[in-house]
Specification:
Blueprint (H helix, E strand, L loop, with lengths): L6 H21 L6 H30 L3 H10 L5 H8 L12 H11 L2
Helix pairs in contact: 2-5, 3-4, 4-5
């Protein structure tokens, strides 16, 4: 099959243009793959769940009869061990769960403003 001479540059231009649009779209255009969008959605939902559980953690801390002792223990712990101390206090264990949550403990610790 004979193709006209003017068709070859047009095909090259279309291919180069498609590659250019793809590169620009994924680097500066904000395009993402399905896997990346899924990972971002999971992270956002996890952050929202943690944010919704912080008031429960704070309420548990306020209503705990041994609050003063537990706060003293948390304050006495080094900065890197405070989250674990708060988890040991039981305030990061949400109702209906058996184990404390590290992310909730960190967010609750931030809100407690020790």
């Amino acid at each position: 099959m004979n193709t006209p001479k003017w068709l070859k540059p047009g095909i090259y231009g279309a291919v180069i243009g498609a590659v250019f649009v793809g590169v620009v779209g994924f680097t500066w255009g904000g395009w993402v793959t399905g896997g990346t969008s899924h990972d971002r959605a999971v992270a956002m939902s996890r952050n929202d769940v943690v944010a919704s559980m912080v008031p429960i953690c704070l309420d548990m801390a306020r209503s705990d009869p041994a609050r003063a002792d537990k706060l003293a223990t948390i304050r006495a712990a080094s900065t890197y061990q405070r989250r674990d101390a708060l988890m040991t206090a039981g305030w990061a264990t949400m109702p209906g769960t058996d184990a404390p949550d590290r992310d909730i403990a960190q967010a609750c610790l931030t809100e407690l403003e020790l």
